[in-house]
Amino acid sequence: MRTAPKPQRLHINWTRCDGRGLCTELLPALLRRDDWGYPLPRDGSREPAVPPGDIPEAQAAVDRCPRLALSLISPSES
Fold this sequence. Notes:
Structural class: alpha+beta
Number of domains: 1
Largest sheet: 3 strands, antiparallel
Helix content: 10-25%
Strand order of the largest sheet: 4-1-5
CATH topology: Alpha-Beta Plaits
Distance between the termini: 29 Å
Order of helices and strands: EHEEEHE
């Protein structure tokens, strides 16, 4: 039996982020850029929910962030 993936949220560490925008290119459904290139969640939340089908792409964005500013967290960790 296959279990459903745990709900995940995308956390942005604003202290580390320098607005390169790679995450917005990898996660266009979740993030957009502000005028300076920093990511903004499209849903207006502080930590956008990652739909189960987008978790692999979100993990790729976390892994590829040059400033290590992204992480996936469970709602209970926030």
